[in-house]
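Dock magnesium ion; give full complex structure.
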Amino acid sequence: MKALILNSGLGHRMGVLTSEHPKCMTELSPSQTVLSRQLSLLCDAGIKDVIMTTGYYEDVLREYCLSLDLPLRITFVRNPIYDKTNYIYSIYCAREYLRDDDIILMHGDLVFENSVFDEVMRFGGSCMTVSSTQSLPQKDFKAVVKDGKITKVGVEFFEDGAVAAQPLYRMVRSDWMVWLEGIVEYCERGEVKCYAENALNEVSDLCSVRPLDVGGMLCSEIDTPQDYSVVKATLQEIESRIVYMCFSTDIIHSGHISIIRKAQRLGKLIIGVLSDEATASFKHYPMVPFEQRCSLFENISGVYKVVRQDTLSYKDNIRSLHPYYVVHGDDWREGFQRPVREEVCSVLSEYGGHLVEFPYTKDDALDQLEDLYRSRLSMPDFRRARLSKLLAMKGLVTAIEAHSGITGLIAEKTTVLQDGKTYQFDAMWLSSLCDSTAKGKPDIELVDLSSRLRTVDDIMDVTTKPIIFDGDTGGLPEHFTYTVRTLERLGVSMVIIEDKVGLKKNSLFGTSVPQTQDDIEHFCEKIRAGKRARKSRDFMICARIESLILEKGQEDAIRRARAYVEAGADAIMIHSRKKEPDEIFSFVEEFRLQDKATPIAVVPTSFNTVTEDEFKRRGVNIVIYANQLTRSGFPAMQEAAKTILRNHRAAEADAMCMPIKDIITLIPEE
Ligand code: SPV
Ligand code: MG
């Protein structure tokens, strides 16, 4: 594609503005003229060849073009009788350069906003820009449109079907050749003072030039000083429009750069960088920390500003920045981001902002990098370290029990979008109760460590989230040291051991079964042994206090908590089987009087009405949903089994089952 820019004319209606140079060199801003703007747009669109007709102040024009130092091959073609002819003759002079390609034709005094040019470049076929929202100008071009095609262009057409038109054309070669031959004929019979469009009008039935309606967008010729001041002010307003995009990516690739470049063409680009927390909530823990992700974007030329976006929802940033445009790839029309998009549209509509969506380009190289990163997430060192990072980042983390590969996948993948935020569990709880139950065994430390580790391995095989391991009593201190090393090596983030000895029973039995609490010093010794065995700083040992379960009172619980922290516990867990959360709240309150830092874990199985927000407010850091998948899954299975038995066939159980198609596609093959 070549560009043809017509710059031969005198521009006499501009007065002093054109007394020393051609009209196209009129300044639009201290750093831009009409011509430099046109040429940069051509460069951005990847056009390399420009044919420029010259005449008036030709030397000044040539020198100016060279000084711009743009990556363009400009062929200057002089119209020797520019002062006696119209541009039809300039095109005639340049005809030999114009026969071999599609042509973008523009008058040298035409100023159009970037989006107009983008649409011209995107147009399939030949077109001329028109504006259906503009009233018909008295002196300027009108195009007459019939059956979607332009039949005539000129200043004299006020008839039905006429629309205001601007001399910016995209001409595919075959259509252009028809017009060019018309121009040649006109000029060779001496008709050199009319518009080139007169020649087009005679052959318009032999080519197909369609109107490209640019509505109210800026696309104007500058003929007079009045035009000049209006266009200049409009352009300034357009270029100061705020454009907003948000990114959560760790890696910037060519697809991002390309959409950023497109967004920059719409105005001043502000980039929102999604906070670590928001990113982790819907994707995965960011590989590159927030500050570094910000500086990635700050270092892209032409990015006006980088701001933080705290939620997946754009609402707050849109309300504070008031962008004229929000830009996004069109991939968010479907999937979990769809409600986010809908909210963006509704917030923008509050003040007349616009959403611009560019086609999403799938990038295989990026997908591979993401896969690589995802696989690293599951590597022991990465996975293990993530729990302490999440604790530091979020203040409160949630864990749900997992006892198999499939429950691990549920813990890993279940996502809920609510009020513009995405919610996921942060971690998995390797419950002794659920692991034993899945194996049909009682929760009495009967399932040995090797078997429990097999479950850990099954889960780790298909997930990336951090794991909190229910270590029961931890066994003898001498054994616990090995457990710590093994778990740590596997990539488990935390082991929780409870201060009980003898035959361990599940805490929720409370005092209805004999259970013995360890003595403080003995349990502290176990903690110390575990801490000595630990190799990495990010593996945590959490001491679980059973005083409330065994009705020993808060004082005992607090005394133990302090002793365990003193012995090196990285976190404490306080357990209760009361329906009301009061004893938990009162323990947390008292513990926090002296210790603000040590993370506190709770297992709200019985005191299940307390929300995560309330726990967080009261100083809790880890909420473990210890058995809900097991308790919901098994009754459903039992019911299906009973239904088959009752009916002596499976048909009646079908409604309670996942369709076969879904179950076989539930788990991806890679
Ligand atoms: C488990 O899930 O195995 C626990 C928590 O230890 S609880 O069942 O409440 O004791
Ligand atoms: Mg347990």
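Observed: The chain has 24 helices and 30 strands.
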